[in-house]
Amino acid sequence: MSHNLLDLMVAAKDFEALRVIKNVRFGIDSGEIVSLVGPSGCGKSTLLRIIAGLDTSYRGDVRIKDEPPHLHSRDVGLIFQEPRLLPWLTVAENVAFELGRKGRHDPYVTQLLAEVGLGDFATAYPKQLSGGMAQRVAIARGLFTQPSLLLLDEPFSAVDAFTRRRLQDLLLSVAGHHGTTLLLVTHDVNEAVYLSDRVIVLADRPGRISGQVIVDARRPRDRRNPQLAKREAEVLTLLNDGTNQFFDLSYHLAAAPPRWQAIRLSSLNFAI
Amino acid sequence: MSEVSVPASGAIAASSRLDRGGLIRRTEGLLVPAALVIAWEAVVRGGWVSSHLLPPPSELVTTLADLAGNGTLLEHIGISSLRVLIGFLIGAGLAVVVGAAVGLSRRTEALLDPTFQALRAIPSLAWVPLLLLWLGIDEAPKITLITIGAFFPVYLNFVAGIQKVDRKLVEVGGIYGLTGYRLIARIFLPAALPNLFTGLRTGLSLSWMFLVAAELIAASRGLGYLLTDGRETGRADLVLVAIVVLALLGKISDSLLRWLEDRLLGWRDAFDSRPS
């Protein structure tokens, strides 16, 4: 199969001795919205970094409009989990970062800021923005170069649930308006199903595709649409290998009756 | 999504209240010195301390007026400030160049940093005899000593600033295809600017210190010479006037840097960011 925007085939990607991605292959057509969902460590973010040209040490073949990925590609934009605004630049200068300081008066900056609802904040500094506002600036910056494919790496995971829903709708309308294709990585199954035409589910160790769910609900979508809930269930099934994975710890808890004891820092594991 | 503080009528009223608070705070800071000056004057006039050893503030004002009147004070201030300015500019300039090279490249760091760390461990005054031997007693050893004093704080802070630049912001630069010189100018320098200013301000105050050291040893003009002159002629008033003038010059030059810092670094999300 051939896709007109992105064709990705990563045969292997290793971090030292550890194989993190094995035989992942998918494509994206122009105008699609596709999500990558999977547990931590399944290589979702690594795949985005490969497409963005930030990571070049892999075996495989990746083509964006028949070209291998490279940094500063006009075809690809990237939005991170955090806004990553440059604190010493104003909002307008951040959006027009590609043009340098002279870009802040570019009429396209004004238009994009108005689209993300921050028309009055062109001269504000990032420290004056809330988390959601900063992420909207990041979206405007991602769109400024007018990429055909916008990559988003867990873009809304750092904001509260209400802000997240508003940002999701904002992303859909702005991307729709500019005809931008979206590929986003998320932990949030609900978000993936609501936003996407297709959800690609990855399994971990090593990262590989465990399946794909097509979401054919019409847009604009109603978050209460039961069809979406059904698709969510399908994604969850793929994530959990078809079983109900309730992590039952009651057995362990029963074996060790609660009692006061000092917490040993070395015994704690932190997972991100 | 909460709103940012947009100046409204309420905000303006609040800011004028803050201004009055700032004024009170500023005058509060003068209370202790004023009380000390009055006590000082009283102690000397009352005869508890010899006015020969501790001239009262009123006598210092007379001495200051005399020195200012015949133009010698201005000459001393001028020559000392010029020495500090030249030494500081050379030292800070070199530190920025070397600091950038060391901060940005591990190889340069491995090559140069141990040497600078070793040189830094030398007490500054240990340089004086060597500089006098090598450079005579003219301007050159004085300016060199000030240069050494200004160099290290700027160098250390700038290197630390560059090495601490957020990797995530560097990555943003990378995505926009910035490499080499452009990456340095657009990401590393602005990100390291707060540290650079810390270094510059420390370097400037050390420059004044080294100026006095240099002028105490061999000078016929300058505020350090005024100190020596006062000691040799037994005039404590001259010494005290020179000290006061040095304090004022140090404060004024630091305030200038601070003003520049506030202008250039208004973007910092700092705890003490004052309403402008």
From TrEMBL, chain A:
Which InterPro entries does the record cross-reference, listed alphabetically? AAA+_ATPase (IPR003593), ABC_transporter-like_ATP-bd (IPR003439), ABC_transporter-like_CS (IPR017871), ABC_transporter_ATP-bind (IPR050166), P-loop_NTPase (IPR027417)
Q: Where is the ABC transporter domain?
A: 3-229
What Gene3D superfamilies would the database entry show?
A: P-loop containing nucleotide triphosphate hydrolases (3.40.50.300)
In terms of Pfam families, this protein maps to:
ABC_tran
Q: Which family does the entry's similarity section mention?
A: Belongs to the ABC transporter superfamily.
Q: Which GO terms describe its molecular function?
A: ATP binding; ATP hydrolysis activity
Q: Which CDD domains match?
A: ABC_NrtD_SsuB_transporters (cd03293)
**Protein name per the record:** ABC transporter ATP-binding protein
What keywords appear on the UniProt entry?
ATP-binding, Cell membrane, Membrane, Nucleotide-binding, Transport
The record lists the organism as Candidatus Accumulibacter affinis
Automatic annotation (TrEMBL), chain B:
The family database entries (CDD domains) matched by this protein are listed as: TM_PBP2
Task: Report whether ATP-binding shows up as a keyword of the record.
Answer: no
| Protein's GO biological process | alkanesulfonate transmembrane transport; cellular response to sulfur starvation
Alphabetic keyword roster: Cell membrane, Membrane, Transmembrane, Transmembrane helix, Transport
Q: Where does it reside?
A: Cell membrane
Say which domain of life the source belongs to. Bacteria
Domain ABC transmembrane type-1 residue range list: 73-257
Q: Name one Pfam family in it.
A: BPD_transp_1
Q: Which residues form a coiled coil?
A: none
Query: Where, by residue number, does the polypeptide cross the bilayer?
Result: 84-105, 117-137, 143-162, 206-226, 238-260
Q: Which GO terms describe its cellular component?
A: plasma membrane
InterPro entries in the cross-refs: MetI-like (IPR000515), MetI-like_sf (IPR035906)
Q: How does it sit in the membrane?
A: Multi-pass membrane protein
- Family membership: Belongs to the binding-protein-dependent transport system permease family.
- Record-given protein name: ABC transporter permease
The species this protein was found in: Candidatus Accumulibacter affinis
